[in-house]
Amino acid sequence: MRASQFVILGLGRFGSSVGQELMEIGCEVLGVDRDEEKVDEFAGSLTHTVVADATDEEVLRSVGVRNFDCGVVAIGDDIQASILAAILLKELGVKQVVAKAVTELHGRVLERIGVDRVVYPERDMGIRVAHQLTSPNLLDF
Ligand code: ATP
C-alpha cells in the first residue's frame, strides 16, 4: 500500500508542524512556500519542497497537486492568498482540502468555497488547554 500523500501550502509554524508530524506517521509530504528561507529550513525533513506562490494555478498544476490525497492550506495572515490557494486546490481536484482560518469570517468563506475541513489552531488549542487545566486526570482532549 502506498503512503498517503499530502501537499502543504505555507510552511509557517502550523504548516511545518503538520508536515513534520505527517512525516513521523509515515506519509509523503510536499511543502510549498514562497519564502526560500522557509523552504531551506524544511527541505531536509519533508519528502519534497518547492519555493513557489501557492496562489499560482500553473505552479499548482505543474507540481501535480491533483494526485495528492489531501491538501493543507496553512497560510493565515494573507487571507486573500489563503482563499485563492484553497479554491485552486478544490478546482484542480484535490480530494480532501483542509485550511487554517484566522477568524470566524475567514473560516466561513473557506467553508463556502468547499473546503472540507476548516481548523482554527489558536482557538482550538485554547479550548484544549482550558480543558486540560480543569481536568488534571484527563490525559488528552
Ligand atoms: P503560522 O502561525 O503557521 O506561523 P502565520 O499565520 O503566522 O503562520 P502566515 O503569514 O500565514 O503566517 O504564513 C505562513 C507561511 O505561509 C509563511 O511561511 C509564508 O511565507 C507562507 N505564505 C504566505 N503566503 C504564501 C503564498 N501566497 N504562497 C506560498 N507561501 C505563502
Automatic annotation (TrEMBL):
<feature type="domain" description="RCK N-terminal">
    <location>
        <begin position="3"/>
        <end position="119"/>
    </location>
</feature>
<dbReference type="GO" id="GO:0008324">
    <property type="term" value="F:monoatomic cation transmembrane transporter activity"/>
</dbReference>
<protein>
    <submittedName>
        <fullName>TrkA family potassium uptake protein</fullName>
    </submittedName>
</protein>
<dbReference type="GO" id="GO:0006813">
    <property type="term" value="P:potassium ion transport"/>
</dbReference>
